């Protein structure tokens, strides 16, 4: 499925004259994976020239949907396999049950060595896939190599990929997907047609989410909560949906509720500027996920910085009034320093030594941004 806000980019791709390598890039959680998978399917679809593709009815489309198309090679790490056509999982990793999927999601939040390993595409898998490109395609049409996300490819595998981009095997189209264009090797980047995929505007993102949620009764969430989570997820609808699905269990739901409440309380506190009662805010919020709190704070600071430079308030339009006023009172060098601290803290957010103390310290420094 192509998200409505990506329709224009979809229409811009000529399936009959597709370049050998496409690099789809854009913010995380906006539908890049779905776009890439639909594109792969359309490029493999065997419906007659001029028909709407993917047709979802031809043999190739059916093979694709069952995860058995022999010319579709997906290089995807364990942490991201839940985004692939369901049955495609069988070939790689056995069936992923819903509970396993939820676990895979949670695993992504930690970062023990084994968990870290799962974030990478296995080197052997990458090598043997790329080596296999020397032989002809199975069905005589296109062959698609999807690498998602591109940063999950380790350096040596990336070099192997680069070699095949330099001398593209016939009928092979590489679809590379990344949320971090800045981390892509320039040598890879320069061999691809770049396709920028934009996030939706706020209204259409929320409208799409409401529609999706209406068809999934297990995801019970109020409009207000939905909006809050949507902002917390940086205005990325797919990330929002993913977050909601990962928090389906009862305990998780309580945790979610605590996080939403805490995040609201934090934002109300931040909106007070120099008058923030940071001890009270830390007291009322420290039991929530530190990761969520840090993310909210980082976005708030980003909005303050943006607003100081006369940009539109991106993450918290509901608080646009306070943000604009505060941005005029803020001392920018202090704001920048705190931004760096919060960014650093986010890197270690999975091992909060003492959430409350860290939170108090950050909030106190926030107050100082507005003090003389
Ligand atoms: Zn088809």
Describe the structure concisely for a colleague.
Helix content is 53%, strand content 7%.
Describe the overall structure.
The chain has helices at residues 7-11, 32-44, 59-65, 88-93, 98-109, 113-118, 123-131, 155-166, 186-189, 202-214, 223-232, 237-246, 250-270, 278-285, 290-308, 320-329, 332-347, 355-369, and strands at 21-25, 72-75, 143-147, 172-178, 193-196. The chain is of the alpha/beta class and 372 residues long. The chain has two domains: 4-196, P-loop containing nucleotide triphosphate hydrolases (Rossmann fold); 249-369, Zinc Finger, Delta Prime, domain 3. It has a five-stranded parallel beta sheet, with helices on both faces. Strand 3 (143-147), helix 8 (155-166) and strand 4 (172-178) form a beta-alpha-beta unit. Helix 13 (250-270) packs antiparallel against helix 14 (278-285). It is elongated and about 70 Å long. The model is unreliable at 87-110 (pLDDT under 50). The structure holds zinc ion. Zinc ion is lined by residues 45-47, 54-55, 57-58, 60-61.
């Amino acid at each position: 499925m192509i998200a409505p806000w990506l329709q224009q980019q979809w229409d811009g791709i000529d399936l009959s004259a597709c370049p050998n390598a496409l690099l789809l890039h854009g913010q995380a959680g906006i539908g890049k994976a779905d776009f890439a998978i639909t594109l792969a399917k359309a490029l493999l679809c065997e419906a007659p020239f001029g028909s709407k593709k993917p047709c979802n009815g031809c043999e190739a489309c059916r093979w694709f949907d069952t995860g058995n198309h022999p010319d579709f090679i997906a290089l995807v790490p364990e942490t991201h396999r839940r985004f692939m056509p369901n049955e495609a999982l069988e070939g790689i990793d056995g069936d992923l049950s819903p509970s396993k999927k939820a676990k895979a999601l949670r695993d992504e939040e930690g970062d023990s060595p084994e968990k870290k390993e799962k974030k990478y595409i296995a080197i052997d898998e990458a090598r043997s896939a790329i080596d296999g490109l020397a032989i002809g395609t199975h069905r005589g049409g296109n062959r698609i190599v999807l690498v998602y996300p591109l940063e999950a490819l380790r350096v040596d595998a990336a070099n192997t990929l680069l070699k095949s981009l330099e001398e593209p095997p016939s009928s092979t189209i590489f679809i590379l997907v990344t949320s971090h264009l800045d981390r892509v090797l320039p040598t890879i980047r320069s061999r691809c047609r770049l396709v920028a995929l934009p996030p939706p505007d706020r209204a259409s993102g929320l409208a799409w989410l409401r529609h999706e949620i209406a068809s999934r009764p297990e995801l019970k969430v109020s409009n207000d909560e939905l909006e809050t989570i949507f902002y917390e997820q940086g205005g990325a609808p797919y990330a929002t949906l993913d977050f909601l699905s990962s928090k389906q269990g009862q305990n998780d739901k309580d945790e979610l509720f605590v996080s939403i409440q805490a995040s609201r309380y934090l934002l109300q506190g931040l909106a007070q500027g120099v008058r923030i009662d940071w001890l009270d805010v830390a007291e009322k919020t420290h039991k929530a996920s530190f990761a969520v709190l840090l993310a909210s704070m980082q976005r708030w600071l980003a909005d303050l910085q943006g607003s100081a430079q006369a940009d539109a308030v991106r993450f918290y339009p509901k608080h646009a009034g306070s943000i604009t006023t505060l941005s005029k009172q803020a001392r920018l060098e202090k704001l920048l320093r705190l931004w760096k601290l919060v960014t650093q803290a986010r890197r270690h957010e999975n091992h909060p030594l003492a959430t409350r103390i860290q939170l108090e310290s950050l909030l106190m420094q926030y107050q100082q941004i507005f003090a003389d």
